[in-house]
Amino acid sequence: MKDSQKRTAKLRIGALGVITAAAVALSGCAAGAPQADSGQKTLNAIFLPADWGKVVQEKLAPEYEKETGVKVNVELVGRDAIHEKMATLFAGQDSSYDIFNVDYNWIPEFGKGGHLVPLDNALPDKEDFLPLSLKVATWDNKLLGIPQTVHPATLWYNGALYNDQTMKDQYQAATGTALTVPKTMDEWLTQVKFFNGKTFKGQKLSGWAAQAAKGFGNVHTWLSFAYSYGCKPFNDDFTKSTLTTSECIGATERWSEMMKYMPAGANDFTYDSVTTAAQQGSIATAIQWSWGQFATDNPSASKTVGDWQMTTIPAGPTGLSSAHLAEWVISVSKYSKNTEEATKFAVWLESKKNDVLQAANGGGDPVRASSYSAPTLTEQKLEGNGAARFRRLPVTLEAMKTAQPRPFFPGEETWETTLSTELSAISLGQRGVQEGLSRADEAVDKNLSQ
Question: Labelling 423: which of 24, 136, 166, 359 has CA 20 to 30 A away?
């Protein structure tokens, strides 16, 4: 099933979830729900099957059981399936699961419904958390999730390519300027055009790559253009779509133009597609999550170990650089029969020690400011290469200063699906920028009025 179809199905499930979950609740227990071992306190949790979820399942949950005697069953479930399961369980006030790994843009939806436990008094050292990471875990002035990982979008560039003297000389001759890491969207476009079609280390290059698949990938890439152009997709109270402002049109025109310099099949590109292209050295630059750099340093899968560097998103016309933020948090179900113990586990997961441990094991970028100077991370080198394993962290920290979340309101999932459809039509040449954005405005306003 395509991403867009999954999103549509998910919205329908919201209406069916009340009936389904109520029937489940009346039956006494959820079908397939984990059962606690007799005599032992047990928590049931659902995490994303990304590395941060695997670290919890394989390392941290067993360690917590050793320390406390509390067993934590961790299921790894795909993103859309987590959302669907939460909606269904919450509709039936089902207590089968205590803890959920939550994409932050679900916080307004489930926070408005009153389904999550406020955690404001649970964190003794909030000041160590990155401010934005806490902000997007908060709804109606209540902290409803403890940040687990952040990964703002960053501009990746192949350092070996940018440092190649022959390539530098060719660029100087072609453009009259030195080849340096781009600071503005205009500089980046010039470089993308130059690199596109060039051959480097036996690989024919595309100028850049990013997520562009219909469903949500194209929206996530577009947002870094939009924010850096000063585009605000909504008015302040999320009652009207504002995608046809000059800023949004300018951002979309630039994004659409740059799609020409993506690899073949770009309109189906996912996170994994971008990662593979970077590993193969077939792209010069990319917009990709900061955390994803680890995959290019895997010698069993990558030809570009140690080569990829990153910088903040190039600035738009007004000098603003603002990345789209990705983040996952840990939330406790209001319907859990073990809210106190579940909260203790969530807090323990994001202690200073464990924030570093998760990052060191590939579990996303840290959520605590102190972790960014932890020697365990900053002093690690790639075996046989010498490059710093966590060379991305200074850029991640800088990007977090100006990064922005997806539109933070309860209808965000629906909004992404609606906008993604029009962005896909624009990138495929089926509609012009202004027509596509006007259609998106109309569709979003219709959804808001319902």
Answer: 136
Contact 285, 155 (CB under 8 A): yes
The residue ranking higher by pLDDT, 282 or 34, is 282
Give pLDDT tens digits for 136-165: 999 999 999 999 999 999 999 999 999 999
Angle subtended at Cα 50 by Cα 44 and Cα 55, rounded to the nearest 5 degrees = 60
Tell me the mean pLDDT in the region 172-194: 98
Q: Which two tokens stand for residue 428?
A: 């495929």
Token pair listed for 195: 């690199």
The strand pairing partners of 142, in sequence order, are: 139
What is the rounded CA–CA span in Å between residue 106 and residue 137? 9
CATH class for the domain made up of 153-324+407-449? alpha beta
Instruction: Report the share of the chain in percent with pLDDT over 90.
Output: 90
Structure-block tokens of residue 131: 């401010």
Top CATH class, 3-151+326-378: alpha beta
387 touches 306 (CB < 8 A): yes
**Residue 20 in tokens:** 């389904």
Q: Which residues contact 279 (CB under 8 A, 6 or more apart)?
A: 295, 296, 298, 301, 302, 303, 304
At 407, which amino acid appears?
P
Q: Is 218 left (phi over 0), alpha (psi -120 to 50) or beta?
A: alpha
Q: Where are the domains of the chain?
A: 3-151+326-378, 153-324+407-449
Taking the alpha carbons at both ends of the chain, their separation in whole angstroms is: 27
**b/e map 211-243, b = 16+ CB within 10 Å:** bbbbbbbbbbbbbbbbbbbbbebbeeebeebbb
User: How many other β-carbons are positioned within 10 Å of the β-carbon of residue 423?
Assistant: 27
For residue 291, which of 208, 182, 386, 367 has the smallest C-alpha distance?
Answer: 367
Tens digit of each residue's pLDDT (9 = 90 or more) over 109-136: 999 999 999 999 999 899 999 999 999 9
Within 8 A by CB and 6+ apart from 95, the residues are 333, 335, 336, 337
Which among 259, 231, 137, 254 has a CA at the least distance from the CA of 184? 254
Ordered alpha helix ranges (H), 281-327: 293-296
Outline where DSSP puts E strands in 142-221.
Answer: 142-143, 146-150, 153-158, 199-200, 203-204, 206-209
Long-range contacts of 272-277 (CB under 8 A, 24+ apart): 273/209, 273/211, 274/209, 274/210, 274/211, 277/206, 277/209
